[in-house]
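Appendix C: a fully annotated inverse folding record. The material below is reproduced so that readers can follow the format used throughout the book. The structure is listed first as tokens, followed by the designed sequence.
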């Protein structure tokens, strides 16, 4: 009997292995009648160093501005995305509720109980329509809604047929306001499929940040990079874990001083997926 059970286990393992030996179709999407419990943890640290004359540095000291100025932040957001039944074979409703948000300064980033409503069609990025939140004015509601629309837009990945060892690249823009100027950068993110095991595809992530345009009034140089991991649930077409760590350096020359900025950060998003 034990040998028979062992044989069944071996056959099941071989079946799972052969299922993905030819690769997979990488497609990230929300599905109808599914619950996505998500936790997003983000940390960041920046160091700003001022370089200038003794008089300029004394002015900073008189204003109680530390040189270098170091800031740190840490936040955790817990949210649940729930999708409804497919309607007319075309679209399904989507509801995102923020369960708990915390930060190292004790402030609530997004009030608990805030709900964002939208809808989606299979294979497409959801459209977010409205937001309800107790205690927030209409202007701030619009800011949150617009921010989440941008975040959802980043979920869109190109459909790819991949096997272990394959990789693909996505380019995305980044705008950083500096004084009276805006630094336009391009982020090139490369995903490489490392392995497939038990229905989970393991990707290595690498990023390169590069300036797209020159800032005429104030000379600016900026570079950056990142690395991380993506664990993709093949059956559910969504990630179980997305983790990235980044570093960036920026040097800016103003009329009477220079500014050297170094920043680092990490983002980890985990998702528990259940069908209704």
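Designed amino acids, in order:
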């Amino acid at each position: 009997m034990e040998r028979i059970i062992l044989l069944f286990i071996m056959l099941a393992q071989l079946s799972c292995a052969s299922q993905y030996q030819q690769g997979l179709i990488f497609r990230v999407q929300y599905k109808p009648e599914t619950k996505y419990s998500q936790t997003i943890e983000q940390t960041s640290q920046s160091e700003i160093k001022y370089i200038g004359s003794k008089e300029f540095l004394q002015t900073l000291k008189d204003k109680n501005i530390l040189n270098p100025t170091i800031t740190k932040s840490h936040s955790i957001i817990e949210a649940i995305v729930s999708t409804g039944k497919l309607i007319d074979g075309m679209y399904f409703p989507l509801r995102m509720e923020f369960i708990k948000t915390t930060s190292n300064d004790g402030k609530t980033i997004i009030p608990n109980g805030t709900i964002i409503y939208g809808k989606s069609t299979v294979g497409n990025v959801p459209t977010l329509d409205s937001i309800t939140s107790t205690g927030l004015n209409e202007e701030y509601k619009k800011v949150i809604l617009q921010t989440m629309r941008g975040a959802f837009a980043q979920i869109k990945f190109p459909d790819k047929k991949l096997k272990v060892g394959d990789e693909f690249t996505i380019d995305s823009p980044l705008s950083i306001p500096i004084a009276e100027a805006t630094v336009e950068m391009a982020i090139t993110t490369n995903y490489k499929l490392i392995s497939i095991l038990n229905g989970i595809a393991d990707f290595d992530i690498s990023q390169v940040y590069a300036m797209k345009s020159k800032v005429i009034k104030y000379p600016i140089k900026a570079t950056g990079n990142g690395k991380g991991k993506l664990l993709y649930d093949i059956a559910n077409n969504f990630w179980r874990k997305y983790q990235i760590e980044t570093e960036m350096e920026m040097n800016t020359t103003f009329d009477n001083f220079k500014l050297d900025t170094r920043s680092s950060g990490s983002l980890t998003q985990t998702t528990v997926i259940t069908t209704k």
